[in-house]
Design goal:
By secondary structure, the chain is α+β, with helices and mostly antiparallel strands. The protein folds into two domains: about 45-115, Immunoglobulin-like, CATH 2.60.40.1080; about 120-255. Helices cover about 15% and strands about 45% of the residues. The chain has three helices and 15 strands. Strands 8-9-10-11-12-13-14-15 form an eight-stranded antiparallel barrel. The protein has a four-stranded mixed β-sheet with strand order 1-7-6-3. Strand 11 (about 165-180) and strand 12 (about 185-190) form a beta hairpin.
Length: about 260
């Protein structure tokens, strides 16, 4: 009888010690960190055709699946895990949604993306001589547009001082011809936005040759190898494009704008 009581006591204390040991081990177990879901600062983005776009994000579980409602517009896209950026190289202008499935965080985010035609904007900063082009006023912007078909459309916009908004005053098309070594001519066919009466203008091109390199690359001009068109190692923000109307002896100086505002 005493032996049975003693055995019961030993078993009781043994189970109690085992329970305490498990509790202590449980307190020391560290749960894995919760996955932070992918996060974008907004849901609507406008990007430009003709160049890649990089959209930053935070968080994320590092495993993603991407689905576009209109892949023909968005072209190539993917996630750069190291830099936390969504990379898009659009194929044409248009609209599409892009849903990012964060596999590890078990959430999804849908972005609304608009792809606009890419353009280079030049601001007119100086006019010397008799200017017969009513669209090319001082401080007006000339937007050279790169669309899907590369038809070379152009718009002339001005800043409304009352509303502080850019408004289009003329649109049409442009072209550049290479007549002889280092002689380039730019032709415009422009009409006001209120009617279709087309007016034509012709200018010889001067200024910084880097500008011509930009046109050659963006609009696929095939001017052949020309050392004068090579980019300088030191990129200057203030590229000058000088349009000269030789008939009226007028020089129109424009500055390339990185941001059009």
């Amino acid at each position: 009888m005493k032996e049975k009581i003693l055995l019961s006591i030993v078993i009781f204390f043994g189970l109690h010690l085992l329970s305490c040991s498990r509790d202590e081990q449980g307190d020391n177990i560290q749960e894995p960190d919760a996955v932070s879901a992918i996060h974008f600062s907004k849901r609507d983005y406008t990007i430009m055709f003709g160049g890649g776009s990089s959209i930053p994000f935070s968080g994320g579980g590092e495993v993603y699946k991407l689905e576009a409602s209109n892949p023909e517009v968005l072209g190539k896209f993917g996630i750069d895990i190291e830099t936390h950026r969504l990379l898009i190289n659009p194929a044409k202008s248009g609209e599409s949604t892009l849903t990012i499935f964060d596999v590890n965080a078990k959430v999804s985010v849908t972005l609304n993306i608009t792809v606009e035609d890419f353009y280079r904007s030049f601001k007119i900063v100086e006019i010397d001589g008799k200017n017969t082009n009513k669209f090319f006023g001082l401080t007006n912007r000339i937007r050279f547009i790169r669309n899907t078909d590369n038809t070379k459309p152009v718009k002339v916009v001005w800043l409304d001082p009352m509303k502080f908004q850019l408004q289009t005053i003329a649109e049409g098309y442009f072209n550049i011809t290479h007549n002889e070594p280092n002689l380039y001519t730019m032709n415009f066919s422009l009409h006001p936005t209120i009617n279709d009466n087309i007016e034509k203008f012709e200018y010889t091109i001067g200024g910084d040759w880097e500008c011509m390199s930009l046109f050659e690359e963006l609009f696929n001009f095939n001017w052949g190898k020309n050392e004068d068109l090579s980019r300088s190692e030191q990129i200057s923000r203030d590229y000058k494009l000088i349009l000269t109307d030789t008939v009226n002896d007028c020089r129109i100086t424009c500055i390339l704008q990185e941001l059009d505002y």
